[in-house]
Specification:
Two copies of one chain form a homodimer. Chain A has 498 residues and is mainly alpha-helical. Chain A is built from 21 helices and three strands.
């Protein structure tokens, strides 16, 4: 094959992979939004078949030949194609080492496992989920060994979410957080807690708030839409079709507000990826930590800032006149930044949040190392919550069953949240050198902030590795978790008068 | 291959075809409901790729060999497999005679043509749609000749929607309708028209009406969901996942009410197809006319009956207390059956409706016969409306641009609506011999009606040809359009005191 033929075959392969991912994404989105409750049977069937097609396409003999030939011709390829081949080869290697039968069996396991988890969570019945979790953990470990028999399996799993990530990097990271945040949380705990802004917030009015927030974030409504789901998430089918979801709680509008701003950060990332990377494997976020850095940047650094609350307060007053009548921006600002040890990760404040993640990180390591059996998870969970946060769940729904990740096979994902938060803090520190962030937020025009992130991160999609993107975003400095600790300490010392 | 291998290959083929149809259906549904407005680019791409996969699968060499081998082994095959092979072979023949390049080009044409039509309709600008319509008609005619060079191309197109249907059957059918309905409409026109029940009907309350109607129809809400679109339709991804859509007009709740009951009829059909036919080419309605017979049965014969209006009136009063306060069931019944020559087919009453269809039938024949150029359609449209209904549109949006069908390549579809209505009337006449239809409607338990249709039609999917289903549904009698004329004459003579 000459170069032109190779490039055309590559484009064809990418198009077909895009179409399958797109279809699978829409099937999932429809399944958790519009589809009738009893429709899982046809959906599971179709998802199984299309996922099988994707496996065959990704690992087929034709793909292997094409990628090998293109690797050989690599120096003569345009930069984009070289990167595509690199990424597709990584996928090929990671996937093809797993026997097709085990791969499909696993897809089935996590599909049923997710359904079982939903029910188990509802009934707070860990026992019914246990056999599926055991199978998922066992398979996750086995696959990691298929992928790299010479490495620590948990490292292999981490590397799947962020190239090069390992426990040798994460252990000191979490140790630092623990060492510095536990005393901070304790000091805050000695101060009086600000009152919450609970009340009654009708869903229809919260929907209007979602619209407003999306506009404020600068999301292009022609390309980005919002829906309602049990668990908020973001998915993107190219930069021209980005979806976020949220969940409305009538007693507390802050929960959906921060879901929207969080998912909005993911959405800005996806909608800012370069046009030339669309419909290829490079047209996505670079890693899960980088993705979370964007969502948590908007959620916390922007969304929980005083300037942001002041900016949106008039809209809150208009939408919820009864609830806001006797409140001031300051009250909402303090309520949005209430620090208190709690049980549910997704509702945790900025300071205790990484400790929630650390619990999961410790447990995953122990599971992979064989130091902990799945059956003993509930006990171990309570013990670590008590140790790090001083609280323990009274039932498994508020404990080990709260997150969907494990049921979907996402072992090793959680560290991305903490790492992303830390990246975001260092981006903020770097950004402030050239951008008047507070001024942008106050004026309601976030474009200087978004442009900064766009130019240094979004636009590149997967063209660059996370490490290279971080160099862009940190002005060439290495990653320094001290920035994160400093950001939290400064912000909350001021807020709580420490 | 032995029989078992053949059956297993057949199942595999059917599963893959099902998955593609399912994915394409959900992409379309999402596109017209939840997707952001500017997201057509990725969707068109994915739809193009998946439709190409479907073509390759349907017409591939492997499929041809399998179907031929199975045709040979036909006597030894189980009945269901025999029928599957028959249907798939029909698809194969109809599709594979068209060169792949022309097929994909056509898919592109109707995809863009649909978008152009939407805009042309909005601006009432026929000229911008004309070149696309010309291309669609020319291709439709060319494809018909590929499919059967020895037959009249319009007959070939009709046969695509209902096996064996031809103009030699439709010409006398429409002639009869014209001869008998035009005088009826004229007689009705001399009587005073009942007042409409217009007013202000909030969308949220109409949504509650939709919920109520779906329950009343006996749709299983675990398997059937409703959404909102510009143009109402039904799609089904197996009997376990059926979707209907409606459009709410705040000034007239009857429009959405009858959309829901109409689409509900389609949905009952799809959700009643036998379990053993699911995920195969037999797990769908037998033909478009049969499908429309079910939707128009529920919409008109059930939904526009006096018993139905009396049954739902308390709910209407509860949902729309202001608008219903000074009204009686009789008023709503008469408003729902107001007969008057009008311009828009989808809003036409039961009696003038088939004349709207006849206009389109006449025009399609003339286009296919070369007696009419697309450019002359607006004039010919007005002329026929004046001739059959005594009214003419003042702009193309209310005339030739009103329906989506042609822009989507659905030439020859319209007769299904009139034929379906006539089938429904004869089913009603037959059903009444053993079922107390009025009693069922009055009691709010439609199950005797639905069971009757289920046993004679729904359950069979495509196992039987339309003609065989009609024998079931007419107690062995031949199709007799006089039933339809009689039904309309009796009902409206009583209503208008003729």
């Amino acid at each position: 094959m000459d170069i032109m033929e190779m490039l055309s075959s590559l484009e064809d392969l990418e198009n077909r992979l895009f179409a399958l991912r797109h279809a699978l994404g829409v099937l999932n989105l429809d399944g958790v939004t519009a589809a009738p409750k009893g429709s899982s049977r046809p959906r599971e069937k179709t998802v199984g078949i299309l996922a099988g097609e994707e496996y065959r396409l990704r690992c087929g003999e034709g793909t292997r030949r094409l990628l090998e030939e293109m690797e050989e011709a690599s120096p003569r390829l345009p930069a984009r194609a070289r990167r595509q081949v690199h990424e597709l080869m990584r996928d090929f290697t990671r996937t093809s080492c797993i026997p097709m039968a085990e791969y499909t069996e696993y897809a089935r396991t996590v599909s049923i496992g997710s359904d079982v988890w939903h029910e188990s969570k509802e009934k707070s019945d860990f026992a019914s989920f246990l056999p599926w979790l055991e199978k998922i953990v066992e398979t996750g470990r086995r696959f990691a060994l298929y992928r790299d028999s010479g490495s620590d399996p948990y490292d292999t799993v981490l590397d799947g979410y962020e190239k090069g990530l390992s426990r040798s990097q994460l252990d000191p990271f979490f140790a630092l957080l623990r060492e510095r945040l536990v005393p901070l949380i304790r000091a805050i705990g000695e101060k009086p807690a600000p009152p919450a802004v609970r009340g009654f917030y009708p869903v229809e009015d919260q929907k209007r708030l979602t619209e407003y927030l999306m506009d404020l974030l600068g999301l292009d409504r022609q390309r980005c839409a919002a829906a309602e789901t049990e668990h908020p998430f973001t998915d993107a089918f190219s930069r021209w079709d980005v979806r976020i979801t949220t969940h409305y709680h009538t007693e507390d509008m802050l929960l959906s507000l921060y879901s929207v701003v969080h998912e909005g950060g993911h959405a800005l990332y996806e909608s800012g990826i370069g046009e030339d990377l669309q419909f290829t494997c490079l047209g996505r976020g670079s890693s899960m930590s980088i993705h979370e850095s964007q969502s948590r940047f908007y959620e916390n650094i922007i969304g929980r800032s005083e300037a942001f609350i002041r900016r949106i307060f008039p809209v809150l007053s208009e939408l919820f006149p009864g609830e806001m009548r006797s409140r001031f921006p300051e009250d909402v600002y303090r309520a949005a930044n209430l620090v208190t040890p709690s049980l549910i990760r997704t509702q945790a404040d900025e300071v205790t949040y990484p400790l929630h993640v650390m619990v999961r990180y410790d447990l995953e390591k122990a599971l992979f190392d064989g130091d902990l059996r799945c059956a003993d998870l509930p006990g171990a969970w309570s013990e670590l919550y008590r140790k790090y946060l001083g609280v323990a769940p009274s039932c498994d729904r508020e404990g080990v069953l709260q997150d969907s990740h494990w049921s979907g096979g996402m072992l090793g994902y959680f560290p991305s949240y903490a790492l992303g938060s830390a990246y975001a803090a260092q981006m903020f520190e770097t950004m402030k050198k050239t951008v008047d962030v507070e001024g942008a937020v106050s004026s309601g025009d976030l474009s200087p902030v978004t442009s900064w992130l766009r130019e240094r991160i979004h636009i590149y999609g997967r063209m660059l590795d996370p490490k290279e993107l971080l160099l862009n975003a940190f002005d060439g400095a290495p990653f320094d978790p001290e920035c994160y600790v400093r950001y939290l300490t400064d912000k909350y010392s001021a807020l709580y008068g420490l």
